[in-house]
Amino acid sequence: MLHNVLAAAPAMILCLLLQGVVVAICLRRYARFRRSVKNQDLLWVDVLLLITVMLLTLLCNFAQMAIWAALFILLGEFSDFATALYHSAVNFITLGYGDIVMSKEWRMLGPIEAANGILMFGVSTSVMTAAVMDVIKYHHARLQQE
Q1: What is the DSSP letter of 37?
Q2: CA 47 distance to own-chain centroid
Q3: Where do the Potassium channel domain residues begin and end (predicted)?
Q4: Rounded to whole angstroms, how far apart are CA atoms 55 and 90?
Q5: How many Å apart are CA 119 and CA 116, to the nearest integer?
């Protein structure tokens, strides 16, 4: 089991770094865009902000699945990237079909990736929640001023 954790550590660290960078970019760009738009009562502004946050965090999660797929190929578990990516996605989102199973030696990487995926989707969800709460807070404050 220790060799599974050691093999997974670089992928987990890379995923954490990627998620941290994307979260920081999302929050900074969100705040900058929010300040720069003159007429913020327009519906399209809120929709654009929320869609952008959703897409960036989703793309980040897809990239993390690809990182895990690359690890699986590097370890010799899969011969093609498409199969490795499919298996990674099933693990990452904790779906766990079980139609493709890794060798006994590396089987624990599935639950390790699932734990990593739960954490990363949780972070993505919290960023999205923060954006939605900001939209609500902004419009509530505007209504209070009227």
Answers
A1: -
A2: 20
A3: 66-132
A4: 20
A5: 5
Taking phi first (over 0 means left), then psi (-120 to 50 degrees means alpha), and beta for anything else, what does residue 98 get? left
Rounded to whole angstroms, how far apart are CA atoms 82 and 85?
5
Judge contact between 26 and 57, C-beta under 8 A: yes
Q: Cβ(93)–Cβ(124) under 8 Å?
A: no
Structure tokens at 35: 């300040």
Q: Cα–Cα distance between 79 and 71 in angstroms, integer?
A: 12
Express each pLDDT in 95-141 by its tens digit. Answer: 988 899 899 999 999 999 999 999 999 999 999 999 889 888 887 88
Other Cβ atoms within 10 Å of 99 Cβ, number:
8
Q: What is the DSSP letter of 79?
A: S
Please report which residue ranges of 1-108 form alpha helices under DSSP H: 2-36, 43-74, 81-92
User: 0.85 exceeded by the pTM?
Assistant: yes
Structural tokens at position 123: 């972070």
Domain ranges of the chain: 2-31+44-145
Indicate the class that CATH gives domain 2-31+44-145.
mainly alpha
